[in-house]
Amino acid sequence: MSKIYEKLIRPVLFKLSPETAHELGIEALKFGLGSKFAQDFAAKRFGSESFGELERFGLNFKNPLGVAAGFDKNGVVVNQLAALGFGFVEVGTVTFNPQKGNEKPRLFRLPEDQALINRLGFNNEGTAKVVERLKKIKANCVLGVNIGKNKDVPNEEAIENYLKSFDLAHKVADYIAVNVSSPNTPNLRELQKAENLEELLGELQKRNRELSAKPLLVKIAPDLNESEIEAIVGIAQNLGLAGIIATNTTVSREDLKTKINEPGGLSGKPLQKVSNEVIKKIYQYSNGKLPVIGVGGIFTAADAFAKIACGASLLQAYTGFIYQGFGFAREINAGLTEILRAKGFANLDEAVGCQV
Fold first, then answer.
1. Which of 48, 165, 181, 182 is catalytic?
2. Is 182 designated active site?
């Protein structure tokens, strides 16, 4: 099935602008897998084999591979993605007020590097509208909602802005991810600084406990130094966060084959090694006690296993899915099962952090 996508479908999609192709892909999923019959049929074809009991921060996952935030920004194709074999879907990033995002063009392919550059800027319909949509579906997988800050809200008012989104997202999400690491909202990454992050996450966790606590995670950048990562791990543990998502896109442009001078966040293969290093450091500083969702450059089952071995207990993909097509989740999960078996691990948990 991946060969059909690679030889027939991807060449057609890649002739379109990246954003147009993405919108077309969302519409194709929305209508092609819109019915329960179609979803059941797809699940039989693409559904992944069970990983047994895969319990993470109080939630049960069918398999460790999820769709990263940014793919389904408005929560339109959650069950369609579940039918393609993903164990969880993270909707968003959503902001309290709707946003158009940055000027187009704002999404760029780098096929030689198996990468994307995006500077979309949290374009979304607003948290309230997305939550209303999610209320109408019964998600067939674990559902995460990723929340961010509106562009026109200064950092001094960020907490209130996040709390408004959090209150709404809490009604539908199985877990909530706090995005403080997109490079495409001016000054957003300033919120990753220890004193700012502790205050923001402290207020969110306080509200979380008032509303009956759900797993709260923070998504961090790959462009942090070791002391910053250590500080974030300490904050996450002190506040009782459920985990860390590592990592968002990078502003680095090292070792690219493609000559391109476009600002924005780089994702895909070039992010793979740096995200693995961040995962490893989180695992080390938390003594393996803080769950990590590893994201960045997963294209094959071997890529997925490398993140598990560095300390990730769950995985997410976006760019690899764009390049590999609708058989992606099945192939990753089946391949990961084979690797675990070949290496003599009884289950996925045994492999987490095995190379740290």
1. 182
2. yes
